[in-house]
Design a protein that fits this description.
By secondary structure, this protein is an alpha/beta fold. The protein has six domains: 2-113, PriA, 3(prime) DNA-binding domain (GIY-YIG endonuclease), CATH 3.40.1440; 122-191, no CATH class; 209-385, Rossmann fold, CATH 3.40.50; 396-439 and 496-632, Rossmann fold (3-Layer(aba) Sandwich); 440-490, no CATH class; 643-733, 2-Layer Sandwich (Alpha-Beta Plaits). 31% of the residues lie in helices and 23% in strands. The chain is built from 22 helices and 31 strands. The strands form eight sheets. It has a seven-stranded parallel β-sheet, sandwiched between helices. The protein has a six-stranded parallel β-sheet with strand order 15-27-26-18-25-24, sandwiched between helices. α2 (83-96) crosses α3 (100-107), α6 crosses α8 (173-181) and α18 (577-590) packs antiparallel against α20 (622-635). The radius of gyration is 30 Å and the shape is globular. It binds adenosine-5'-diphosphate and zinc ion (2 copies). Residues 444, 446-447, 449, 484, 486-487, 490 line the site of one zinc ion. Adenosine-5'-diphosphate binds at residues 205-208, 211, 232, 234-240, 389-390.
Length: 739
């Protein structure tokens, strides 16, 4: 009998990271009998080679074998993904209706997507050999240098790297070489983890009563799946709670994944973790090099590192010994990927916890309405930290009515007085305005011409420092001109407020004070944000003015006055998420005040002093606001009481997107739509962006499963429509904004 496995070549099915909704068949290399899902393979595709991901092996393809191309190379001996990691990828593909190859791609760092070998940098560790262990250093007295170095190895179980040796002896190499030749030392290669083990670690703080209770409850959940919503006011010591729970997980020799918004993953936080744990720590965020992220990913995957601090995409990092997932600032919209594969790292963290049967902790001072809803439904356990840790007290919140008030570049008289009083006490002031540049609109005084972007439906923002007009959506820019280009004579005026304008005014009002502006423009240069933060913390700055960048994570102990210059811009959005985001922002910004022993004050300038949302938030706090907002959402059957998916379409002309959406509506009408509400097609809130015309269709169903069934039928058809080929489209499941 002929050896059939030699006769018959097996076929490997692969997912290729391209925007198509199918998998591809390739001939397996000779001798291959199995392949684990997620294994990277190199395949010919068109005229190029692509790194693809194996999903399975089969005997017969629908395509004739002689038309199948062979796989060029199998890149991994074993899949770098565990069975559960693979299940997570499949789950995400299914739920977000996104092409499998691109979902796989998101799970790997760029280096591995490009086919780089899955090895981490290694370094030499010198240790005593068996012979060396029996030798008395005195026997080396004829070679004093060798004796000196050999002695360094006499402490219990020490291995030393070249860096360690170089620290103590300039010219250590010849002696080490001699000791190796005498067989007194040996070499071991070890992964070069991001951090070496610290000699000493900082001890945990004495937890207060609420913290202790939280820590106890969280520790009790180690070893099984659960979700806890840790709702702790700013400064309540959530990080301390995380660290004490993490220690317990490390003691069990398990790994911890900590996910944070980019903006809060600061060097200060990394140091806090490094000082606390005698474990290897890896870091992954967008400002690191591809190689650094490659190493962090593999250090966790291979178990060289025990803690990963990372941003959204770190969610997919495989853990060799998973023990705990923490997601801090769970309400933060940066956990939602806004381009390409539109996943929510928060929601996937929970799926991951379930697949690995480990606990997930969601922490925040301002829980998202979805998470609160899940806590009310007992799907999540709610744990409160309602008091600030240490001696800090909660700040006072005040509304300043600025109707009919004279403002000096956004600053009201009473606010200026408050700033003066605070500075007189040698305390710091923080002013928040969520708009950079000098002013958002340039208008002609005589003919009312407005400088607009040619590519977007928006006005150009004045940046006086750079003498430019800039579009904040597409990056288009032009020089500032002294006269109106329309009437040629009119004087051009700046309308509205930006941080640059407020800064100028502050300099005029407080010429003696040190003022620092923190926004995307002023922190362009690498290290400049850190530099500013250091100055602030050293008390060298009197007034801090900034955007969103200030709202989170940073700890300014000497700030006792915080003012939000313009809350009104957030009150009247057509997107129902806006009020939730505004309330979170107000509380987060307020959280920067009075963090140490000095009490803080928070002032909100508004022309809507009677606005119900502001009043509930200020008088009764975030939780009451959230109850009110949830009740409103329930009335309107908006998420989390229903599920939504947004189909976004754009093209260089307005006709093609509308054509596609009309077709989609027809398709939905002709199929079982499970009572799905179809809203649209409508043009997007900012219809023209970067020269493209954006349209959208919102699908909503009171039952998540039914919406999923509809999408499962609809999306595969979308890929086949000829109308879809002329446009760019995406499907956003659980959109966090409707733009
Ligand atoms: P959060 O993350 O909740 O905003 P942090 O964990 O950053 O709060 O803690 C705020 C401050 O309180 C930090 O300076 C921290 O060192 C301090 N802190 C936390 N827990 C305690 C405690 N049990 N005793 C004393 N100080 C504490
Ligand atoms: Zn004019
Ligand atoms: Zn533009």
């Amino acid at each position: 009998m002929a050896n059939s496995s030699e006769q018959k070549k097996l076929i490997i099915q692969v997912a290729i990271p391209i925007p198509v909704n199918r998998i591809f068949d390739y001939l397996a290399p000779k001798g291959t009998t199995s392949i684990s899902p997620g294994t990277r393979v190199l395949v010919p595709f068109g005229n190029a080679k692509k790194v693809a991901f194996a999903v399975g092996i089969i005997e017969n393809s629908n395509i004739k074998n002689d038309r199948l191309k062979p796989i060029i190379e199998i890149l991994d001996e074993y899949s770098l993904l565990s069975e559960q990691d693979y299940q997570l990828v499949l789950w995400a593909q299914h739920y977000y209706h996104h092409p499998l190859g691109e979902v796989f791609s998101a799970a790997f760092p760029v280096s591995l997507r490009k086919g780089k070998k899955s090895v981490v940098a290694q370094e030499k560790h010198y240790k005593l050999s068996a012979k060396g262990k029996c030798l008395n250093p005195e026997q080396l007295k004829k070679t004093p240098k060798q004796k000196q170095i050999f002695k360094m190895f006499q402490q219990p179980v020490l291995s030393l790297t070249s860096a360690d040796l170089a620290q103590q002896h300039k010219n250590w190499r010849p002696a080490i070489k001699a000791l190796l030749e005498k067989d007194l030392l040996s070499i071991e290669l070890q992964a070069k983890a991001s951090k070496k083990i610290f000699d000493k670690t900082e001890t945990a703080l004495q937890a207060n009563e609420q913290q202790s209770k939280a820590i106890k409850q969280l520790i009790a959940r180690i070893g099984q799946f659960s979700v806890c919503l840790l709702e702790g006011v700013t400064g309540s010591g959530k990080t301390e709670v995380y660290m004490q729970v993490i220690q317990q997980v490390l003691d069990l020799d398990l790994q911890v994944l900590v996910l944070l918004p980019e903006i809060t993953l600061t060097p200060q936080l990394q140091d806090r973790f490094k000082r606390r744990f005698s474990a290897n720590l890896s870091i992954s965020h967008s400002k690191l090099t591809d190689n650094q992220r490659h190493c962090a990913w593999l250090e966790m995957q291979q178990g060289h590192s025990s803690i990963l601090l990372g941003t959204r995409s770190a969610l997919f990092t495989p853990l060799k010994k998973p023990g705990l997932i923490i997601l801090d600032e769970e309400h933060d919209s940066s956990f939602k990927q806004q381009k390409g594969f539109l996943y929510s790292a928060r929601d996937l963290a929970i799926v991951k916890g379930k697949l690995f049967n480990i606990p997930v902790i969601l922490g925040t001072a301002t829980p998202s309405l979805e998470s609160l809803y899940n806590a009310h439904n007992k799907r999540y356990q709610l744990i409160h930290l309602s008091e600030r840790a240490g001696t800090a007290v909660k700040p006072k919140l005040l509304l300043f009515d600025i109707r009919n008030k004279r403002l000096q570049d956004g600053l009201s008289e009473p606010l200026i007085t408050q700033i003066k009083n605070t500075l007189a006490k040698n305390e710091q002031v923080l002013l928040f305005l969520n708009r950079r540049g000098y002013a958002p609109v340039q208008i002609c005084h005589s003919c009312a011409w407005v400088a607009r972007c040619h590519h977007c439906d928006t006005s150009l923002v004045i940046h006086y420092e750079e003498k430019r007009l800039r579009c904040h959506h597409c990056g288009y820019q032009q020089h500032l001109t002294p006269h109106c280009p329309a009437c040629k004579t009119g004087e051009l005026k700046a309308l509205g407020l930006g941080t640059e304008r407020v800064e100028k005014s502050l300099h005029a009002l407080f010429p003696q004070q040190k003022i620092v502006r923190l926004d995307r423009d002023s922190t362009q240069r690498k290290g400049s944000l850190e530099n500013h933060l250091d100055q602030i913390n050293q008390g060298k700055v009197d007034i801090i003015l900034g955007t969103q960048m200030l709202a989170k994570g940073h700890h300014f102990p000497n700030v006792t006055l915080v003012a939000i210059l313009d809350v009104d811009s957030g009150l009247f959005s057509i997107d129902y998420h806006a009020t939730e985001k505004l309330a979170q922002l107000i509380i987060q910004v307020a959280g920067r005040a009075g963090r140490a022993e000095k009490p803080g004050k928070v002032i909100l300038q508004t022309r809507q002093p009677d606005h119900p949302l502001l009043n509930v938030l200020l008088k009764q706090g975030y939780n009451s606001f959230a109850q009110t907002a949830l009740a409103e959402r329930q009335q309107a059957m908006l998420p989390p009481f229903s599920s939504q998916a947004l189909l976004r379409v754009y093209a260089g002309n307005p006709a093609d997107p509308q054509m596609l959406l009309k077709k989609v509506c027809e398709i939905i009408q002709n199929m079982e739509s499970y009572n799905t509400l179809v809203l649209g097609p409508v043009s997007a809130p900012m219809a023209k962006r970067e020269g493209n015309y954006h349209f959208q269709l919102l699908l909503q169903n009171n039952h998540r499963k039914k919406l999923q069934s509809l999408l499962g039928l609809l999306v595969p058809q979308l890929y086949l429509l000829k109308e879809a080929r002329k446009v760019r489209w995406s499907i956003d499941v659980d959109p966090v904004d409707l733009y």
